[in-house]
Amino acid sequence: MDGSENYVKVTIYGQEYTIKAPADATYIKNIAEYVDMKMREVQDELSTPQVPTKVAILAAMNISDDYFSAKRKTEKIKNDVEGKVSSLIEIVDEAIQK
Questions:
Q1: Which of 9, 25, 42, 92 could tie 58 with a disulfide, CB 3.0–4.6 Å?
Q2: Handedness of CA 32, 37, 43, 46 (dihedral sign)
Q3: pTM tops 0.85, yes or no
């Protein structure tokens, strides 16, 4: 990012917002579309229409769960790779010492 800020109009759950952010407009629109999709998924799972605030909070919980799950998976992969690298270093060190 070059520090310049963009103003992008997006629609989330039927509401239009102007977002000011130092990011590419397409990126901002993709985020807004993702949030809109998550809010609509939440409402679709509920038996009766809910106020947008409640839907937004439940969608935020779902998005946070997605984030923390991905973070855990990334951490596990990182630990697995670090373990394998350590094993390879030991093997190389043993080969060098022979």
A1: 42
A2: negative
A3: no
Dist CA 3 CA 93 (whole Å): 46
- The values of phi and psi at residue 13, to 5°, are 55, 40
Q: Which residue has the higher pLDDT, 7 or 4?
A: 7
Do 59 and 35 contact (CB within 8 A), yes or no? Answer: yes
Domain locations in the chain? 6-97
At a CB cut-off of 8 Å and minimum separation 6, what does 29 contact?
8, 10
Query: What are the backbone angles phi and psi of residue 8, rounded to the nearest 5°?
Result: -130, 130
Q: Which two tokens stand for residue 67?
A: 């984030």
Name the helix (H) or strand (E) containing 11: strand 6-12
- The DSSP code for 4 is -
pLDDT 10s digits, 35-65: 999 999 999 999 999 999 999 999 999 999 9
